[in-house]
Amino acid sequence: MRYLTAGESHGPQLTTIIEGVPAGLYITKEDIDYELQRRQKGHGRGRRMQIEKDQARITSGVRHGRSLGSPIALVVENNDWKHWTKIMGSEPITAEEESEMKRQISRPRPGHADLNGAIKYGHRDMRNVLERSSARETTVRVAAGAVAKKILSQLGIQVAGHVLEIGGVKAEKTNYESIEDLKKVTEESPVRCYDEEAGRKMMDAIDEAKANGDSIGGIVEVIVEGVPVGVGSYVHYDRKLDSKLAAAVLSINAFKGVEFGIGFEAARKNGSEVHDEIIWDEEKGYTRATNRLGGLEGGMTTGMPIVVRGVMKPIPTLYKPLKSVDIETKEPFTASIERSDSCAVPAASVVAEAVVAWEIAKAIVEQFGVDQMDRIAENVEKMRKLAREF
């Protein structure tokens, strides 16, 4: 499976084309819209989320609620486009119109793709860069992730994400009873945090940053339960599932770090405190006494829950902007200000769910796939049975 996305932040629409989804997957517009609405929520979001009411149009690849096996095309329209038709239109304009064009950007924002992208592609107006490098693009990545989640759900695999830390405020209560319990609590939290007290402190930290014209980041965690043993491979670097998951998480805008299980804490522990002892269970077969490695060994799944975390830096668009240099005059100025969030960590946890779900669904379809969902389900169940009886 693979997908491509297209579209600019203030263009007419965002589009994704998904190829390789098996035939027979039950998928509806409502399934995708639910995930898109989750992405728009969260304490600290800016005015753009009040303007946009993201909904998907399925324009190909699905008939009567079932995937056909052909490419699936999804479109999300930008409501704000009506205010940007002249500025972001595809039709040619005159030199005079270009000179009068508002919102041209010559002052790059530190921490963004503005300057590097302008140098790479030769753009004097850095709006050509920021419109595509904007996190608005994650809208259709979440749409693609919704399709992946439906594949996993049909195979008895569940995905959940939550926020562990925002602006230095850490969740202390993280031991949830079940993945359903985790989902229920975090869906009701404005910051998607399982720890209610920590969640209130996180909101206070977001409000303080906003009042100061600043932004804050945090840490999100994604858990995946029900993945059979042996998904991925140890035989080559580019087939290791943990490397694919790491790349997917780091591809999310503003993410700068990723870890599995106890992650970087392993550097400060002895081997006996890091590795998970193997035990035998009559009902489950092989399992682990602990899950410090986050459900992955040797680039493959162990059958334990997959646990992956991502670190999101503070959003670099600030209402108290940092110093920069105007590329036309080379004079120092404060950077351009674009409408933005003070904190997007809660929304980023939904994006993280989407990209993790996609990589796992992709790996399973490649390993067990025969182009039909019911036959993939049969093959996955055979693998689960094999692992229990091995």
From TrEMBL:
A GO molecular-function annotation: FMN binding
Keyword annotations from UniProtKB, A to Z: Amino-acid biosynthesis, Aromatic amino acid biosynthesis, FAD, Flavoprotein, FMN, Lyase, NADP
EC code(s) of this entry: 4.2.3.5
InterPro entries: Chorismate_synth, Chorismate_synth_AroC_sf, Chorismate_synthase_CS
GO process annotations (BP): amino acid biosynthetic process; aromatic amino acid family biosynthetic process; chorismate biosynthetic process
TM region positions: none
Cofactor binding note of this UniProt entry: Reduced FMN (FMNH(2)).
Entry annotated with the keyword Metal-binding: no
Organism: Bacillus paralicheniformis
UniProt xrefs under PROSITE patterns: CHORISMATE_SYNTHASE_1, CHORISMATE_SYNTHASE_2, CHORISMATE_SYNTHASE_3
The protein's role, per its UniProt record: This reaction introduces a second double bond into the aromatic ring system.
Protein name: Chorismate synthase
Residues where NADP(+) binds: 39, 45
Pathway this chain belongs to: Metabolic intermediate biosynthesis; chorismate biosynthesis; chorismate from D-erythrose 4-phosphate and phosphoenolpyruvate: step 7/7
List of residues binding FMN: 132-134, 253-254, 298, 313-317, 339
Signal peptide: none
Record-level GO cellular component terms: cytosol
Family, per entry: Belongs to the chorismate synthase family.
Reactions catalysed, as given in the entry: 5-O-(1-carboxyvinyl)-3-phosphoshikimate = chorismate + phosphate
Gene of this entry: aroC
Cofactor: FMNH2
SUBUNIT field: Homotetramer.
